[in-house]
Amino acid sequence: MWCLDWEGGGSVEGKKMHPCVRAFLLSLLLLVAMAKETWDKCQMSEHDQIIGSIGGVIDKSSRVGKELKIAMEMAANDFRRSTCSKLVLHLRDSNGHSAHVATAVIDLVKRKRVQAIIGTVSPQEAALVSEFDKVTKDIPIISIPPTSSLLPPLLSQSPFLVQMSPNIAAHMQCNAAIISHFRWHKVTAIYENSNSVSTDSGLVALLSDALELTDSTVKSHAAFPPVSSLLDPRAFVEKELKKLWSKSSRVFVVLQSSLEFAMILFEKAKQMGMMERGYVWIVSDEIASLLDSVDDSFISANMQGVIGCKTNFVDTSKSYRQFKLMFRRKYRLVYPEEDDYSNPSLFALRAYDATWTLAMALKKSQGRTNSKELLNSLLSSDFRGLSGEVSFKNGELSQSPVFRIINVVGRKYREITFWSPEFGFVENLAKDAWMKVFFLKLIKECFKCFIYLEVVRHNFLFLFLIVFRIPDLQN
User: Fold this and answer.
1) What are the Cα distances from residue 185, in Å, to 37, 178, 211?
2) N or C terminus of the chain: which is more exposed, having fewer CB within 10 Å?
3) Which among 328, 266, 330, 265 is positioned nearest to 302, based on CA atoms?
4) Average pLDDT by consecutive 10-residue portion of the chain (475 residues)?
5) E strand or H helix at 390, and its extent?
6) Receptor ligand binding region domain location, by residue (predicted)?
7) Which are the contacts of 47, defined by CB distance < 8 A and separation ≥ 6?
């Protein structure tokens, strides 16, 4: 019988509401009142609920910087609505320059008294800041993009740097797996330096190490300065590509690049005939994860055939769908000129999770903690966020990544297969490996259910004996 029927049937006028409907409406009103009371409570105690303040250092002119801004602001607002605890967020624009990064960090720590920083701060930049200003040396810094610069000398200089990404060696292994699979024996590595104070040549070494057990080698490499530091980026890129063309290079691996640099690179490569049949281009996660924000016409005109390794994340969950909806709405308001390309990338998800992680650590300590305790609380995080499992090991995400192998065809890209360090390509996996993982999880869950049912059974028997006062069988 449906609860939405009215008692007595016929005309509604003069009829009493069905008790079921009345109970439903009262429950609904109660929930609304409780939600309003919680929100009013947060509003009234606004000044008493501040748990701490954090800073954000981003390049507001870049796509990644724009996404980080929106995601961090969303996380701070969502955390407040969820916990009635306010996290103060201060953002600074680095303009893509290392000097501005250093200035921004020092300003945030000294003037705004932030307790931690999130953004696109490289290990070299963090080490540089600590050399210039000792006060900032012990401030936890969460860096969102992956980097190859986590080397022992730098780690000793900036031990408070936390990488919101897994070890970048896995990215190089994925590139090496593609190269080996297609038996490309000689490749040329290309990368854009992440900052203007040092080079990222460690990326080439990581790729060479990954190719060591194959028949392939890194024939040559080309390092480009940050695109924001070039007066005429297009002319510079064209000149460097001509050098590579003269060496008869045919297989290129873009190890590290901003979206802005990559678009110039592929536009010039197309003009020079280096995107035709016989040429191969492989892009890193930094580009593959941002292809959804690139104009379809640019992709179809300049990036045909490009292969990429894109970090996999769950994009079908309810929490992600809600986040995506709100992110798109906010992104369009702030950047209306990019209305058609407002989907969040992996970097937005990680920025959201990083902000939430810091907020939880600050709330746990009620804002009364020193930098070392905050860092330890941050590194002990263990929860499932929008980007995946958030837990740390050796100052970086401990979760082993899984990559979607993509191939640009037409105006978009298609997903070919998956690759992970543990299992390799999906089509090369022994099915029993995946089945083994599945059954182990299944057995684990069944065991939990068995224990639960046993507890319920014993409790039921105990209650049954008490209620019916069944005499002890031994008497």
Assistant:
1) 66, 11, 10
2) C
3) 266
4) 40 50 56 50 58 94 95 96 92 90 91 93 81 77 76 53 90 95 95 72 89 92 90 95 92 94 97 95 94 93 96 93 96 92 94 96 80 90 94 91 95 93 72 43 52 54 50 44
5) strand 388-390
6) 69-410
7) none
